Amino acid sequence: MKYLFDFSPFIESEISKYLTNCLNTGVIKSCDVSYKTTKNISLSLYLIPVFNNESKIIQIQVIMQNINIHKETEEKLKYLLKLEETLSKISSFFVSSISIDLTYILQILGDTFSANRGYIYFFTSDYEKMIRTHEWYDNKTGPLPMDTREDSVSKYPWFLKKLKENKIVIVHDVEQLTDEAAAEREALKLTGIKSVITAPIISKENKLIGYFTLTSSEKLYSHLLEEERVLKVVSEIISTYLERNQADAKISNIARELRQFIDNSNSPIFCVDKEGKIIEWNCSSEKITGFKLEEVYQKELALFVTKDNRTALREMIKNSINGIETSNFEFPISLKENEKVMILLNSTIRHDVDGNIIGVWLVGQNVTNLLEYQESLKQKVEERTSELKEALDKEKELSELKSKFVSTVSHEFRTPLSAILASSSILRIYSDKLTPEQSIQRLNKIEVQVKHMTKMLYDVLIIGKIEAGKLECNLEFINLKLLCEDIIQEIKVNYENKCNIMFQYNASVTWVCLDERLIKKIINNLLDNAIKFSDSGGIVNFVVSYADEKINFYIQDKGIGIPEESINDIFEPFYRAKNVGAIQGTGLGLSIVKTSVELHGGSVKIISTPITGTTINVIIPI
Hints:
Largest sheet: 6 strands, antiparallel
Shape: rod-shaped
Strand order of the largest sheet: 6-5-4-9-8-7
Number of strands: 21
Strand content: 15-25%
Radius of gyration: 62 Å
Mean pLDDT: 81
């Protein structure tokens, strides 16, 4: 093949195959060829065959056109389209995805900008350090040979300055960095990086928080304004994503804390939907009721309360959904073991993210123990009130007793004191004129009155011990028959044989286990009353018998008797029947008798009618 002129050796091999095809086919051919000298050159060739009269190709005419500018324009357009496609892809990814893989964003940018590696760094708040959070590299290049996950910011002052000025840094050839960026130039050369693209990440407070960077082991020649625009948009997308991520993290933390609070709360917390069916059931609810969430889920809450409370509970839930929230709603809830506990509920409306009402939150408190404590406390208050009332009544009774004591003693002591005073005055004034018998008579009268006063004082002391609960019963073996005879003899002397005492000891036992002091008070007071309220010369019957391991004392008189309306009060201290008139007495005798008998575990019976007399029966077990 002979050329009319010499082709450049750069394209001769390319054009020869097209010429051969054109010679063989006789068809006009067109092709584009490129070659590189000091720069890229593109040519468009048209191969036109020329035929002779015999229709044989005698030559091929080649028309060449320099399409270098056209190619550059076409390549630039393709690159711009690629930039827009990259931006669109990243934007769509950001809008459609809740969670974004920033490493994937670095890969998309790396493919677009013909980079080998990509990184995202964030600064500490004091700008002392920068920390790498994301890294991308292609399969051929691999990661950096040295670990730069955390680095000192002071090593890159020029970069930091540019980033703080919110500028995109595009370095086509690291060797071309000026001495102002000498530190960056040497650091990049050590890692084999020849070109760098870096964009700042700015927070919504307009503060530099980090940057992303793309590096290449080849020199980059293009530098278009569109590249800066895309990088700024990507920077804003990353910043927005981080802010959204932080907000989502805060919301997630709050939601998680709320869930933990609900689940771990000491109070039962559950939620029902609009139909009153359970959709939430915390651990405390499980613990109190014994039912797990899966056992109650989508079951109506009203089914877990007693039938008589279901209507009220359903009405409460309905009111809550209609905006009428409830406080301190008390109802019994059934347990798994068929027991019940009392729950105090407070309700609040539950909304979805759009503000629509979807149910009711119910926060409860187990008040079963509280109600039991309240009931116990109420009972204790009632008991204490009763005790205080009794104490008050006792105090009142004691006060009345003291008043009666002062009144009675003042009155009862006046008569014997007057008798003693009169007898002693006669002895003092007329001692030389009185016979010995008359003097002895006066002295005996004084002695009798002194004994009477002593008895009254002793009775008062006994009543005081009774009221204080200090009167005791000390049992010992005594000769009951001899004790009765001694008491009768003493009373006869005191009353100068006013009445005849007819004593019969019919008991089969003589020695019995009793409190001698108390038995003496019982017999003494009963005989004293029988004689005191009987006419002179009357008869008093005193019989002692024994049957069924019990001692019976029967004392009967024919005296004035006790009116029917006084029978119930006759044993009260200082009480005296209305028919006693001027007959001396304190009203303490029968009260002492009753208490002394009861201390022995016995009882007292009275049969009495006015005028006909009184019969008293004392029964004491031994």
